[in-house]
Amino acid sequence: MSTKTAIVTGGNSGLGFATAKKLCDNGVKTYIIGRSKEKTEDACKEIGENAIPVIFDLNDLDGIPAMIATITQNGPVDILVNNAGINLKKEFLEVSNEEFMSIVHTNVLSVFAVSKAVVQNMKENKGGNIVNISSMASQYGLPKVIAYSASKGAIEAMTRAMAVELAQFGIRINCVAPGFIKTKMSATALDSDPERKNKVLGRTPMGILGDPSDIADAVYYFASSESKFTTGTILPVDGGNSIGF
What we know:
The structure is a single chain. The chain is α/β, with parallel strands linked by helices. It has a single domain (5-243), classed as NAD(P)-binding Rossmann-like Domain (Rossmann fold, 3-Layer(aba) Sandwich). Helix content is 45%, strand content 16%. Strand 4 (79-82), helix 4 (97-124) and strand 5 form a beta-alpha-beta unit. Helix 1 (14-25) crosses helix 8 and helix 4 (97-124) runs parallel beside helix 5 (146-166). The longest helix has 28 residues, at 97-124.
């Protein structure tokens, strides 16, 4: 892996940060794409010399090809982790068309645009790995996240479609679907709502929240040769939550 180059979108915090750190710690030169200059540069400093900041807003779909071209000028991209995404927690009847489309724009269209630009480079170099990040919201129904759920369902469908079409070029596409993971944001939300926290843990057979490193480990597996005969799969990393009773 020390000869590989990766791109991680939204890699300046949370699951993306853990993933970027895992790659960098294993010698992978990793471009971290983030909107916030300060936050992205600080994340790269914390991770170390293999982390390279790329300041870019993925909502700028038309600018994505040029941004990726700037990266690939320095050499081929072997790994793409489509992690960046946004959420909206709101009652179904209160979600506007504009809000719904905003989520889809960031969570689906940008993934398509980034993947398309990177796949062109991977095709020229006869191979590569793309790992998409989905969510338990695509595995079963969750209230108040209609747009987010729709976007992550789309990501899983795209994973399968891309895997079938791009296998001929030596490009593998897989997806990790995180369950309830212990981040600053989730900890604050669950600690302030004991009933919800008990419900989450009650239907998780392993009885604990996951760690961001659990997601990073799964992504690393898909990005490495250890999974060389695996493509088009959706891997829940959720302590059994998606099959819990």
